[in-house]
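Hypothesis: this fold can be encoded by more than one sequence.
Test: take the structure tokens below, design a sequence, compare later.
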């Protein structure tokens, strides 16, 4: 976890004993017009999920939208301490099907007929790096697929 992220998580710790007994939810957090960092966040409320995502991913307050996907069963032992990003193992325990996105750096899951795809920023960065390596004769060390070359006709 980044230093900035851990500081932010500490600021969000419950201030009342009763908040520890509030239900936990899984949110799908997005930024309209920018799907590069979409992913699931465990949180006790939508406001905290949105704020956590904005802080961790470098967005401005009010940029993110949080959609409640489900209430997390109290018996489930999460691999993270909320608010935090969900891991594939957590999602699998919640009944999500882990899908093969065709890209080792993009996570994709399905639940109740709906498919969720992680923001692909990491994949895009690795693909661009491989493009640069390939042009310089050093192959594709990240093993990404070459992007189709666009030919522009004037």
């Amino acid at each position: 976890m980044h230093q900035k992220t851990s500081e932010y998580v500490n600021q969000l710790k419950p201030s009342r004993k009763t908040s520890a007994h509030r239900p936990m939810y899984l949110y799908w957090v997005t930024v309209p017009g920018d799907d590069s960092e979409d992913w699931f966040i465990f949180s006790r409320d939508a406001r905290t999920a949105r704020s956590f995502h904005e802080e961790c991913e470098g967005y401005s307050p009010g940029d993110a939208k949080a959609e409640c996907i489900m209430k997390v069963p109290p018996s489930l032992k999460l691999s993270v301490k909320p608010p935090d990003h969900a891991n594939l193992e957590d999602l699998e325990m919640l009944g999500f099907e882990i899908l093969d996105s065709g890209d080792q750096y993009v996570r994709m899951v399905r639940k109740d007929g709906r498919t969720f795809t992680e923001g692909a920023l990491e994949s895009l960065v690795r693909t661009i790096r491989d493009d640069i390596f390939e042009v310089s004769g050093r192959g594709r060390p990240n093993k990404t697929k070459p992007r189709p070359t666009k030919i522009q006709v004037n």
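The helical segments are 3-11, 46-57, 88-93, 121-135. Confidence is low (pLDDT under 50) at residues 13-18.
Hypothesis status: open.
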